[in-house]
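CHAIN AND CONFORMATION:
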Amino acid sequence: MVHGETVPKVGFRPAVWATAERNPFKTELGLTTLGETLGLDAIFFGDRMLSSVHANGRPVYRSSHTEVTVTLAAMAARSKKIFVSPLVLVAPFRHPVQLAKVAASLDLLSEGRLLLPLGAGWNLHEFETLGIPKAEAAGRLEESITIIRRLWTGESVSFEGRYYSLKDVAISPLPYRVGGPPIWLGSFGPMSNDVWGGTSLSKATERSLARVGRQADVWVPMLYDAAHRTCISPHLLSDAWARVNIEASAAKRPGGVSFAFSHWFHCVETREDEEDLVQGLSAFFGGSIQEARDTYLIGSVDEIIERVDLLLGDSISPEWFILTMLNSSTRQLELLANVIAPRLRTLRTYS
């Protein structure tokens, strides 16, 4: 390893569907304990508001799970070393003062083990349900990040934006870490037809990448899409990463922006693994097994590592690898921790 370079961290996101278990907390917390025992660095959990969601007339997910901040609090209380994190938290669904307070409390509870990936959201039905105009999502996200970071300093904040107005507002207690947890930003979604079509980036996507460069500590783009049943092309990902870095440099961001590789995986090495794959996909994926293989990282350990390397290309060295499980299989989690993670940690280093 070259001096000054660091081995990336490896985290996981369990797929524990409320439709499969009446009370999934036992499984969620059991996987938290197991993941920590196995030496994984973080556990991530999604932000799903409704029981099912469609986009462009096709299902994106057909099952949901427990509320994300309640779940993260339980995971933080159950563990001692592993980072806990949403992936990603839809910021426009919460007022920034509320979000700053919740995140500060989670960071305090976990003694500095909270990561905070945020996103603008994409599903119109969720926005309509909450009475929030979808067209305001990106602007609300940007203002929220500005407000949250100021509130985490402990100062009294006055702010007059397009969407939020504050006068002499402060929160207490503050996060465990000075300045609060790192803020990650997601990108892409089922409506990002330019990304999943493998063509050039749209103006809307370019604006979102500029936001990442200006405001994020870490970029965690969605690299797959269940609605389109495809995976991002390596050349498009490389182009998007270059744009993020250009914007970060222009904004004179100290330290720039790091990259987090996030994908779904299922290791297939036995007949039982094949059966487990079919069962796991049946809970949420509406396509064929071949379409699932086109969308996610499914195959032998060697095949998974080769595909990760292909997607990263020559220009991307992640600080984080995050792999989402298709179901709550302890075998898959053990394979991730004991076989896949060591290879990912030596696949790339980051500066």
About this structure: The first strand starts at residue 9 and ends at 13. The first helix runs from residue 25 to 37.
